[in-house]
């Protein structure tokens, strides 16, 4: 793809954050969550929006869906009828009692207003209990949209008052489609292997894919595989596969050298190496026994690293255990 405006577009890539510039404005613009979008649109069309609970990993459309609902209900006046709070910053009971109650009381004209509480699973138990009572008290004129990563951390009385929507990681096709659309809009030349690398690095997170695209676009004229892996500190899948295969074949020295390169030259964190191994286990062509053995070692290393153990020591121990004959 060639565009005479490409140099000018490339020079302007840092002037605006693309995840905001290209954030979908309407529900129908959201990629990869078609079933959820369809259900939410039916609520709006029937003018019967309940309290909502959105759960799922980062970058899959939870916040975007919330703002899109407000835009479709209120139009240009949506900001005045939409209160957004981040519970990870304001975790105490006072936030629920003060800011949310003050906003809920100020509704007018018989219409309901929307309170969006992001990262609601960060609220303390007392704050969630206060929120439950507030939801009851202002149910006539306020709708709550709660966003979280894990519904298990939300108390049952709140869950039972909400329609629960579970957002899944975005498909490779959805991420690739959005990346190509943005590349065309910005006049960026991107190769097919560059798109594949962005999709792989994103792992279902649209926000990460778009941020990576913007960063890669500032490094050169063409966004290709090499540029993407350089700016995302992500290992090529073949490097991970080679490291594990060498370990399973008993060549610990070679596997350790690959690991050292990933940690020191690529700049990867130990947890990222674990994540990539886990994502790719079933793509290595291993026998079922070898795959099970690898998963057992990965789980042990992940736990130890999460508990504060030295990352390099644990990853080398993982490779050593794979190299030992049973």
UniProtKB/TrEMBL annotation:
MF annotations from Gene Ontology: ATP binding; ATP hydrolysis activity; DNA binding; DNA clamp loader activity
UniProt cross-references to SMART domains, sorted A to Z: AAA
Highest taxon in the source lineage: Archaea
Domain AAA+ ATPase span(s) in chain numbering: 48-171
Keyword Nucleotide-binding: yes
GO CC field: DNA replication factor C complex
Signal sequence interval, chain numbering: none
Cross-referenced Gene3D superfamilies: 1.10.8.60, 1.20.272.10, P-loop containing nucleotide triphosphate hydrolases
Residues annotated as binding ATP: 56-63
Keywords from the named record: ATP-binding, DNA replication, Nucleotide-binding
One GO BP annotation of this record: DNA repair
Alphabetized InterPro entries for the sequence: AAA+_ATPase, ATPase_AAA_core, DNA_pol3_clamp-load_cplx_C, DNA_Rep/Repair_Clamp_Loader, P-loop_NTPase, Rep_factor-C_ssu_arc, Rep_factorC_C, RFC_lid
Keyword Nucleotide-binding: yes
Family membership noted in the UniProt record: Belongs to the activator 1 small subunits family. RfcS subfamily.
Subunit structure: Heteromultimer composed of small subunits (RfcS) and large subunits (RfcL).
NCBIfam families per UniProt: PRK00440.1
Task performed by this protein: Part of the RFC clamp loader complex which loads the PCNA sliding clamp onto DNA.
Protein name: Replication factor C small subunit
Organism: Halorubrum vacuolatum
Lineage of producing organism: Archaea, Methanobacteriati, Methanobacteriota, Stenosarchaea group, Halobacteria
Gene name in the database record: rfcS
